[in-house]
Amino acid sequence: MKVIAGSVTPDTGQMTVGGVEVPFGSPEEARSRGIGIVYQELSLVPQLSIAENVFLGRWHGPRGLVDWSAVNEAAREPLRRIGFDVDPRRHVRDLGMAERQLVEIAKALSSEIRILLLDEPTSALSDREAHRLFEIIRDLTRSGVAVVYVSHRLPEVLGIARRVTVLRDGEKIETVSAAEVDEGKLARTMVGHALASELEQAATPAETEERPVILRTEGLARPPRLKPVDLELRPGEIVGVFGLVGAGRTRLARTLFGLEPATEGTLEIDGRERTIRSPATAIAAGLGYLGEDRAMGVVPRLPVAANITLASLGRVSVGPVLNFGRENGVAARYAKELGIRTTIDRLAGTLSGGNQQKAVLARWLCSNARVLILDDPTRGIDVGAKDEVFRLVRRLAEEGVAVLYLTSEIREARSLAGRVLVMADGRIAASFAPDATEEEIMTAAGGVVV
Amino acid sequence: MSEAETVQPGGGGLSRARTLVARLLTTAGGRGGALIILLALVVAFSLAADNFLTVDNLRNILRQYSVPAILAVGQTVVIVSAGIDLSVASTAALSGSVMGVMYAHEGYPEPVALLMGLAAGFAVGAINGFVITKWRVPDFIATLGAFTAVRGVALLVTDGLPVPDYTKAQEGRTVPETVTTLGADSVFGIPLIAVVAGACALIGWFILSRTTLGRSAYAIGGNREAARVSGIRVERVKWSIYIFSGLMAAIAGFMLTGRQGSANALMGEGMELQSIAAVVVGGTNLFGGEGTIGGTIIGVLIIGVLNNGLNILGVADFWQRVVNGSIIVAVVALDQWRRRAAAAREA
Prior knowledge:
The complex is a heterodimer. Chain A is an alpha/beta fold. In chain A, 35% of the residues lie in helices and 21% in strands. Chain A is globular. The two termini of chain A are 24 Å apart. Mean pLDDT of chain A is 83; it is low at 194-203. Chain B is mainly α. In chain B, strands 1-2 form a two-stranded antiparallel ribbon.
């Protein structure tokens, strides 16, 4: 997507529009050839008006002066075209996600376009809003615009597209006619069978089922994005949570850990009801959390040792005074245990992604966490480091830690977890044993009804 | 040395010299840059004026820059946590005024007057902390408001007149003796005000490098979200830090009062910016996460030596301002360059 729109420059190849070659690497150039794009992360400036956003950087007017009434007037055209009846002078910050999505599309349409690229446009939309979007897309295609629609959601893809191209690991796998495939077949193509059997199944020791539940939630929710969730975790168990973008995985993790405290429902740890209002209370209750965004984890300009002890400063201090001897001892032990290959006095920011991730895991061992919430811990780290993270997670579980492993990769969920929960639309939609087929899981996750 | 091996054959002596400079600047715990500039200034002024490097003049510098140093200690802790405190000089004036009025006009015993002055500093810090954490006003704006409002309170407390005001002062009351002694006297030739500043620096250093509060300040300044996720109570820490800065400002206010022999609501004007400049010149990152008290002290000394040296050389005040401002920017620019060089070598 980014290559076509010119925001990323490819190494090889060429692109033609209407038989004319288009140089890569210039969004300006791409736009002038009639390519419009709507990114997954909206690229609007909330403080500006709709009209200002639609023409961002291309405001009409002579010599650096902007004729605002002309801009507002001009903005009505693309808005009308998608049937979005709104005053273009309104501020984008006052709009809902769906309306912002429409503004984004109007922005793409504001220049003469022949090709429209949409990247996961429904990830922030409700079903009803998504329907409206589909109507607009159909209108556009009728008026002769070619649309490329990127999505994880199989029913959507089959509902809207004529041809479907499956990409996996940056490679084109297959292009099929939408009329000739069903969701199951598409899911199989997406997953790729050859890969599925590579990883050996993690046997869930039967004995974990007899252990007492360590974490239990009943109706835990933070509407509207997280609907009531019932969850049970036992010591030594790895429970995978699979969900596509926008399914509510990260919400669940943040709610459990008190970053976005639950507004409904109850949470019990060791049979005792707890109210988790903040990360501090979550840590005191024995929880640990590794965020989706690695930048949230380490403090880059503190040494590795300080990063490891950050969640358990009480353990390495006497009253308010730090005991460096104890800190270094403790940090060195966990660094070694997790195989962090560096000295602990190095600044954490200079470590590789994998080592940073391990430093954050070490932090939770240090704080004696008994329940670990890992949100996509292998995101953006290389294959070797991934493997190591898997092994670490398994070992932690063997030592009796309960792990909630949230991921957007089916393979990871299946090969690591003893149970796979599937999230869709802010709730847990299904629960599978790890021997469920990937098609089944993918189908359950694609839960948006079109 | 690995750097020596990476020198390009074609680069010759120039790039080798550059590597050498870069290495010099990155020594002394990253404070090398500021330290070298301080030494260079001292050498330059000593050569240019024979009355610069005299015991009397050095004492003079210590006496004059102890108050900014105390303010800068509090400021360092605040800036390390990615905050900023523009209200320190106003708070110093308020605390000095409150202490003076309570002692001279109201006739409270010395310890009570001192405690009330400290309480004023504590209160300003607590209010800053409250506005920042509870009302979510950006640090800069909250303390900018306090910068003006606190001066106003000081003017109200003193009626805009110097304290003690002999029409209001009680029989025989001027300024508490502790304050005049510490602010103006010397022991074995060392100004006591510098000893107080040294003690404050020691406290600041201890808090920043040896306590969980200091560690939390670095964590919040370096990555607020990571600090929160690690269970650090960010609001409580910020609150404590602003109160610490307020207390340092109160002590600075006492010392200023003692040095001058009286307090007034307008004293110390401009010192908030001087303290921020000293902190940044001393290598503390204005956006938080790194910095040391040692660096800040070097920063204060750089500013002190510079002002004093230019004075001695008879440079006109207007030019002094130009040079002063330019040097501050130059030091930080050099520091940025040093960081890039260090990062490049790390990679």
